[in-house]
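User: Predict the full complex structure for these chains.
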Amino acid sequence: MHLKPFALSALHSATTGGRRYHMYMGTLTLIMLIGAYAYSLQLRYGLAVTGMNDHVSWGLYISNFTFLVGLAAAAMMLVLPAYVLKDVDFSRAVLMAEAVAVAALVMCLSFVVVDIGNPIAAWHLIPGIGYLNWPRSLLAWDILVLNGYLAINLAIPFYILYSRFSGRQPDKRKYIPWMYIAVMWAVSIHLVTAFLLAGLPARPFWNTALLGPRFLASAFTAGPAFVILLLSLIRKETKYEISDGAFSKLALITTAAAQVNLVMLISELFYKFYSPTHHGINARYLFFGIEGHNALVPWIWSAIAVNAIATIALMIHPIRRNPRWLVIASAALFIGIWVEKGIGLVVPGFIPSPLGEIVEYTPSLVEIAVTAGVWALGLFVLTILVRVALPIELGESRSPYIDGATSAPLVRPRSTRGLTRDVRPVRTR
Amino acid sequence: MSAEKVTGTPATAEDNTRLGQRVDRRRALQILIGGIAAGTQAATACSPVSAMTDEEREVKQLAWREYIKGNYRFMTEAERAETIARLERVAELKRGVDVTIQSTGAQPGVEFGYAFNISKCKGFRSCVEACINENNLDRNAATQYIRIFEMDDGVVDLDEADASFQHEAPAEGHFYMGTQCFQCADPPCVKVCPVGATWQEPDGITVVDYDWCIGCRYCMAACPYWARRFNWSEPEVPVAEVNTNQHYLGNRARKAGVVEKCTFCIHRTRQGRLPACAEACPTGARVFGNLLDPNSEIRWVLANKKVFRLKEDLKTEPRFWYFTD
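Assistant: Here is the predicted structure of the two-chain assembly.
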């Protein structure tokens, strides 16, 4: 067994780095500590320390949860071509994308935990000793699919990395079937989260058949956009090879999804505003404000502007193919969709209330600190996962107990920009 | 831990089949956690720094037992009696209030219904006040189950209505319409609860097990009538004002982080009395009764008045009707 050296080596990879790395991780830790303190206040005084109220009963936490489920689902956009379509360019990015999925899911589950009012009763959710209202409650479905997806996305990379670490070639028969399941599962997590909202006739803003597809389109925009940012950083900072082909394909996926996302937005706006009915009142509040209540109006219009500009920019080939512009456009899309899905989706569902009352929502400092803490936790987890995976993939980290163990990197010099059979993380033929 | 304590058999065959193995496994967990708790307590009791009084220790022990108990709906009669005894003792130890908590179940042949006479309501809000006192509603957050909407004559639109009017009622050119939990026959809130902490009783009252609720507030998002309230902080009721006549599923003490709602005053109505709001209404605008009793007033109203319900298109089938004279 190579478990002990694997754990030690992982710990070493995660804790060793330059000054900048330690500063970065230290900053994340500080933000997490501030978040933990804010959460302790929330535990002591109740959710009253947040900006939520009986009218707007979900706020920043569930908004971020909704957005991050999309980010987690989007890992499949790389898994799908790499394994199902056997696209070699993507194979090196898959492990990174799965790390993104794991980090996003950790954040999702954290946001749910910080949102519930009675967290010590969370054991009531465990089937067997508690009672999970499945299949009736969509929230029960969500809990199952999110945890299942987390398990798959932990198990597959662990198996691949551990095999490599132990000097064995990962057995395709053991993980490829799970990859196919993961692809379908990724769609399910975001669809179920959309249905969780769309299944409520009490909230006409969400009660639309387009909500699920819109969720998927925005996820497949923000997800690959984030992976582009991550891979650019990895390419710049490490020896790990990522082909230009991977970037151009990722950019294409992002652009196409962003276009679909805009089309769906237009279709939603048409439906709500061409023949305005009572069902469009929340959309009226979101886009134009009602009787002077217009806290969300600047947010949603900036988000739409940013999304539209970035989408159009990506449609222009020279801009999309320029690495620097690609990164800027990807960052813009990521932020634009965060605002649109976060602030522009969950909160306006509650304003006005089903009985027509308008109570606006502003997150409190405690809420913002907890949210920042969870994001720092997610980045922390992501960084560790990437730091552990890279040296194994590069062949720098191998179990000392295997025959002919080598510490020499298996990669070709950077200039070749290609993949060799030896270092390809996943063999596709 | 003694053997008699662990072998709790379900009271009815129905409970038994519904839960199957579940009860036993939860029991096992309870014993495990209870054992850890007892161990910890024994350790603290022996330690010289422990300055716990007997009462504090008892409160802690009771809190542990309360924490690991099951969902009220699936409890045996013996378990229900146990938790009620514990909760009454906790109220005595912590607040010095001598409360009586009922566990009265739904009476056979009873299905409650409510009717609201729009032409009689004058917007005095005596019902609101009675409800606050009767149900031990949080004074700190000013929680209210009942809302009285003031509407302009000729406009039946809740979007245009005002539920927070501060002037003297009734105001010229206006009429009044009260809302509360409508005890839907097909309640959207019950369907969505991930832990089954809220359910509909056979007499049509939708209840919440406050101790089983995890506080996710999905039910609040699902309710089309905005009838559910959340305890954003620890609810406060002055000791002198506590209504000691309580029901486990009704007006007993709530805690921070859980959802609550109107239960048609389950502690009163299951004993044949009127809900506090209906009793307090000075104009007789509120009619409450048993829908299954052909001689009840509510049946007379439904048969002889032009009645309507809110948001019929959602198919939630409220047991709450509006009518005019």
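Residues 22-46 of chain B form the longest helix (25 residues).
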